[in-house]
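Need a sequence for this fold. Nothing fancy.
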């Protein structure tokens, strides 16, 4: 069996080029580029890096992009005021509040305050509900990027057994909804799952997002499975995923590396979400009314 490394860099460039073309069409029609605002609270180094990469990608794609930087001493009320101002700003189509927030701020309350039509992270309860109903509008960027990776590499999902390791609102749960919509048979496992390696070995598609460096080894992987590593862990010897890539490649058919795997797709899908939000707002479309089909979806609910 020939092993295949699923790098996300080339696909991310393709998706960003598509977003740039869509942004150019939007500008031609409405006289401005799609507007994206990122709110960054405090000076967390990792967050600062992510925000710079998002803003740079947006500007390169022809968006009207800006970052609003607030001090770590910013109160919850002040942050909510800035969110409300952005919700009202007609030039802003997408709003992203960078996580994590300082411990004194209720992150859920802040995310719930974002206008769901501008929620390009896909975290607002309204967007979560639409996704669960099979009417996605703005979908969390990392799971959406994984679906693009699988779809454009022609990995069949219908009827396949998928195991997701991790149950977060950001990756695990929305990933399950997307795979179900593509007619996969889905299991969500997590840190308290009994005999986790045995559960993972059932998977033809294994998606790992549990936040434990190199947890998943060859013992966890069914021969010939496709393994998607969402983890990014900073260790003394550099970045590591939640999957031990060198071990897993001895049994898997394909796997994503860390870095250069899923990470670049997340930023690309943020751009795609922003264009989608801009077009919906400009045309006064009802979110979730007529969503495009998901990769592999045929319109069945059985």
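Here you go.
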């Amino acid at each position: 069996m020939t092993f295949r490394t699923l790098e996300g860099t080339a696909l991310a460039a393709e998706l960003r080029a598509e977003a740039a073309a869509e942004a150019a069409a939007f500008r031609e029609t409405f006289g401005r580029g799609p507007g994206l605002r990122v709110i960054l609270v405090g000076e967390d180094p990792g967050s600062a890096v992510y925000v710079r990469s998002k803003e740079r990608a947006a500007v390169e794609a022809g968006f009207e992009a800006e970052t609003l930087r607030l001090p770590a001493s910013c109160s919850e009320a002040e942050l909510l005021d800035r969110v409300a101002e952005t919700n009202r700003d007609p030039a802003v189509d997408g709003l992203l509040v960078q996580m994590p927030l300082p411990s004194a701020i209720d992150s859920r309350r802040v995310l719930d305050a974002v206008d769901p039509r501008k929620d390009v992270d896909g975290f607002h309860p309204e967007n979560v509900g639409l996704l669960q109903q099979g009417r996605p509008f703005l979908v969390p960027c990392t799971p959406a990027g994984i679906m693009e990776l699988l779809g454009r590499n022609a990995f069949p999902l219908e009827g396949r057994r998928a195991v997701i390791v991790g149950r977060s609102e950001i990756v695990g749960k929305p990933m399950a909804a997307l795979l179900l919509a593509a007619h996969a048979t889905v299991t969500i496992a997590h840190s308290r799952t009994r005999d986790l390696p045995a559960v993972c070995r059932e998977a033809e598609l294994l998606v790992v997002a549990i936040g434990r460096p190199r947890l998943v080894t060859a013992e966890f992987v069914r021969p010939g499975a496709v393994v998607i590593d969402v983890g990014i862990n900073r260790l003394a010897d550099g970045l590591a995923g939640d999957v031990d890539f060198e071990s897993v490649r001895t049994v898997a058919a394909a796997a994503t590396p860390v870095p250069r795997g899923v990470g670049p797709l997340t930023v690309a899908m943020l751009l795609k979400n922003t264009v989608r939000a801009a077009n919906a707002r400009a045309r006064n479309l009802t979110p979730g009314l007529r969503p495009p089909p998901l990769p592999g979806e045929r319109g069945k609910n059985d």
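For context: The first strand starts at residue 4 and ends at 5.
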